């Protein structure tokens, strides 16, 4: 009897070790696969509606759905990121000598000098600060561009893994779900609640992303019109699209507009645009958790923490993975309580 018990523990330890070894081996590749699974969860209802209409080609539904996601979502998003990065690099790599001379001329103005003297500053201090600021910005942009180039191979690998995971999970997701149900150590009802919670959380994350994008785009467009920035509507549309990109958002548009206003001498408008940029950025921390909590039944504070924690741990994909992890933890606590 004792030998049998020891064999069971040895078998369990061996199996657990093999599973841990596998996940440790692929840990650097899990984020695009998880993201592909979350997108498959969203697209699967549409695929189920599409398959019967394809007739004898219904087996092609996963491939068509995958291509549709790439065409409608991934390619435009990649173009937006590339164009935004190129625009930022071009903006900061231009010749700023005339701008610096204009700022220096502004600092020589008697009224500005008087204000600086009252604040305990001198014109030389501000000139040195502005010069150092441009140097730091240039160095940061150069480092950003170098990092973008270095990240291209990994981005290609991640995109490939995301596409493959999306296709196979759309094709075999039903089989995987049934296998998980049979292997789950929890009661069937509890497992159903878990999967329903994950699905609601993913839907909430997507709705939160779209709602945040719409609100930030509208606010940015209004601010650009108020401060009379040229091309306000087009830049507002660009801000709406950029707000779909986690950790980038509307900042390139709003801060770019503020810099433009300062350069043309509209200091009041530049300050107002900076304030608007801060408020628009903070709206993300209010709208997204509120939509997430209202759709998935999660407290707004937990939703906010899960979003920030997910972004810190998983990068841009954490905006979806973080709330899912929080939903699983809440499910575990609630089922433990019952």
Uncertain spans:
none
Q: What is the count of β-strands?
A: 0
Query: Which descriptor suits the 3D outline?
Result: elongated
* Rg measurement, Å: 26 Å
Q: How is the topology of this model organized?
A:
Blueprint: H1 2-25, H2 30-50, H3 61-93, H4 97-107, H5 110-118, H6 123-150, H7 152-183, H8 188-226, H9 232-242, H10 251-263, H11 267-296, H12 300-314, H13 318-337
Protein name: AI-2E family transporter
Keywords: Membrane, Transmembrane, Transmembrane helix
Subcellular location: Membrane
Question: What's this model, at a glance?
Answer:
This protein has 338 residues and is mainly alpha-helical.
Task: Write up this protein.
The protein has two domains: 1-183, no CATH class; 186-338. Helix content is 85%, strand content 0%. It is built from 13 helices and no strands. The longest helix is centred in the middle third of the chain and has 39 residues, at 188-226. The chain is elongated, with a radius of gyration of 26 Å.
Keywords:
transmembrane helix; membrane; 338 residues
């Amino acid at each position: 009897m004792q030998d049998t018990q020891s064999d069971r523990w040895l078998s369990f330890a061996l199996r657990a070790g093999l599973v841990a070894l596998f996940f440790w081996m692929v840990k650097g590749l899990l984020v695009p696969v998880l993201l592909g699974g979350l997108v498959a969860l969203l697209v699967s209802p549409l695929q189920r509606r599409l398959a019967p209409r394809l007739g004898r080609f219904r087996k092609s539904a996963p491939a068509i759905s995958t291509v549709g996601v790439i065409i409608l979502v991934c390619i435009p998003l990649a173009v937006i990121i590339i164009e935004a990065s190129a625009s930022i690099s071009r903006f900061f790599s231009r010749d700023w000598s005339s701008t610096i001379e204009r700022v220096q001329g502004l600092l020589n103005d008697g009224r500005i000098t008087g204000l600086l003297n009252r604040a305990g500053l001198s014109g030389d201090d501000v000139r040195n600060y502005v010069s150092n600021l441009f140097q730091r910005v240039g160095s940061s942009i150069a480092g950003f561009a170098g990092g973008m180039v270095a990240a291209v191979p990994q981005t290609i690998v991640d995109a490939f893994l995301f596409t493959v995971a999306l296709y196979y999970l759309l094709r075999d997701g039903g089989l995987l779900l049934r296998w998980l149900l049979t292997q789950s150590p929890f009661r069937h009802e509890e497992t159903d609640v878990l999967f329903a919670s994950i699905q609601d959380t993913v839907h909430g994350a997507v709705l939160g992303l779209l709602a945040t994008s719409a609100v930030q785009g509208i606010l940015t467009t209004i601010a650009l019109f108020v401060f009379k920035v040229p091309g306000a509507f087009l830049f507002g549309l660009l801000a709406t699209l950029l707000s779909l990109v986690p950790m980038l958002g509307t900042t390139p548009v709003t801060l770019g507009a503020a810099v433009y206003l300062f350069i043309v001498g509209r200091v009041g408008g530049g300050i107002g645009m900076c304030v608007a940029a801060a408020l628009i950025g903070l709206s993300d921390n209010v709208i997204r958790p509120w939509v997430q909590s209202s759709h998935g039944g999660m407290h707004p504070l937990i939703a906010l923490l899960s979003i920030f924690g997910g972004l810190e741990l998983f990068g841009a994909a954490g905006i979806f993975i973080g709330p899912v992890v929080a939903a699983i933890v809440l499910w575990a606590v609630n089922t433990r309580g019952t």
